[in-house]
């Protein structure tokens, strides 16, 4: 059971309920810490009996940056502190508030495009400065970029398979 959805859209209410039988909400406090390169958020769950309610108000979710956040969830009783979950959550743009020219590519797709442009010798300044694992694309040797590119293409295929976005359904009569 995930303590936060795999993805949510900026400006919407995010709400999940969770039960952690070893750490009932009546005696433990659940906190989630979400981090991105230049952003950090802390969410403290509220108790609902022995269960937890994890909520982000729409005004708060609107302030999250689009992209992937890594998170860790901790419980504490004032003395002990345990990590109970970690993972990632993708924040999607709110089209209703987006300006024109919204880039709807995923982080992986943007990185693949930047690497391909760098290898082709026509990367823009933004693409050259795009970071992969804390290094700018232009700082990698071509052989490293090819290796990263192959890995990211594989990962993108996996993600699309999981989301079902590459399925074509047909009906013959």
Shape: elongated
Query: How would you state the average pLDDT, rounded?
Result: 89
* Second rung of CATH, namely the architecture of the largest domain: Sandwich
**Total beta-strand segments:** 10
How many DSSP helices? 4
The CATH superfamily of the largest domain is Immunoglobulins
Helical percentage: 25-40%
Radius of gyration: 20 Å
Instruction: Give unreliable regions as ranges.
Output: none
Give the DSSP E fraction (strand runs of 2 or more residues). 25-35%
Write structural notes for this entry.
The structure is a single chain. The chain is an alpha+beta fold and 173 residues long. It has two domains: 7-92, Immunoglobulin-like, CATH 2.60.40.10; 107-163, no CATH class. 26% of the residues lie in helices and 33% in strands. The longest helix is centred in the last third of the chain and has 22 residues, at 142-163. It is elongated, with a radius of gyration of 20 Å. The model has no long low-confidence stretch (mean pLDDT 89).
